[in-house]
């Protein structure tokens, strides 16, 4: 009993000392400070860094408002709390940390945060951040209490930065998805490609401007995988900046960044329905994922809460800190591959009207003027002149052909040289095409080059029009020498007023007394190819004739094989190899019969050979002589007692039988 009472007094004494220490410490607490801290004021464009808002010695926090962070993306935020008692002095700090990703390399000023502490409104100090490319940031180092960034934000490709930069309201950020959102649907609504054409109903040869654009509200890196081929069109591409530069367009009330992929001026070459091929783009899209915030669990047991918190108060128990900006929620990201294809566009091309078409119309469509000049209006018959006809305007200039020029009959003229002077990146396509005609008069006098007429079709007026130059008057005097033969002045290496030299003597490589047909080797070279062709033709006919009769071909082959086998038997005869000789002779005869009788070697028999030979009109006596010869060879194999004379006799009989057989077949 006494022991229990003593234990109770000890517990009460400890609790009293604890409460007294807390009251003493509270009475000696330090003033409240609210500061903004960064590890470095210079950060790298592609490296996340941390900004901390620190409240020191705050008793009760009822509100906290972060700055807008314009020019940065908020990747993550979290808070921490620390309390210490040193020599009776109580100090506490509450830190809210934001992990930021810079969006562009400029100098930013981050405004201070606002907090309400014990009913008073406090403001932290602003900080200046210089964002530079290629500068390592130390914002994540040196603070053991700060959490590290789970991922580093991959920089977007130039010109493909996410829209709504620095938007403080995450609900307005199109690249943010929450739990349950379909990423592909988010991408589809905020990333697309389209083709803009200024007109879809045109005449043949009338120019069209086609522009392929990529619209995005997301952070994406894009690669064009397939460009349109523009089949059925003549094209002129407009030069675009590299890398692409973004513009802004409002589509359905939403602001998009727009990148022009290709811009081309098209001239249809045929009538009917022509289709502009789609463009295909592969995209790597980054979406940010907002993790569900974790709310603080409030303790319902007062004693447990008292024992866990010696000051019986946690300033972050305020419901404010369940907000995504202040309640410990995290933002991560994920990259998605997304393929885009533009919709095909159909162009309706109408034929040019036949009514009112001038005879000199050559296919020019647009709006043009024509001028003509000569390099000199007075010249002699020794001189060459140049007429320059220039067609200027807007339209299908690259398809314009040379106009007809009616030079005087005493003039020699040559095909024109074409020179283009097109305006780069002009819309509509404009410029000029010049035709330079070189001419040479042969007689003195005053001449007039008639007006040069040029016809074109104006698609705006839907009518044909003609323009013409003023007539050109030329005064020609007699030169010191007259030209007896036309000279080609169209070569580009000759000046317009330069005459080609006249050759008064035979050329060095030509011998006037040389006659090729009088040379013997000329006729030999002429006859040899003909003789070779005739021999080749005769041999081919002979081979073709032999192959048409398969049996005849086999007979010829069999005769060669049999003689070869007997030739080998003759060699064995000279070597006096008795057994090998008879074996070789027997095999040669049976092989010969197989080919001559057209019987497979495996199916040979005396009865079948006899029947076949008799059908071929071979005398029965000769057939019997063959089998006697074969029997003699077989007997010699098993009873080798013959002499060299017997071997020679067998060899001669075999040759005679084959020769006799061949003679009867040829009859």
TrEMBL record:
Transmembrane annotation, as ranges: 520-537
Keyword Transmembrane: yes
InterPro entries in the record: BatD
Pfam families the record matches: BatD (PF13584)
Protein name from the UniProt record: Oxygen tolerance protein BatD
Keywords assigned by UniProt, alphabetized: Membrane, Transmembrane, Transmembrane helix
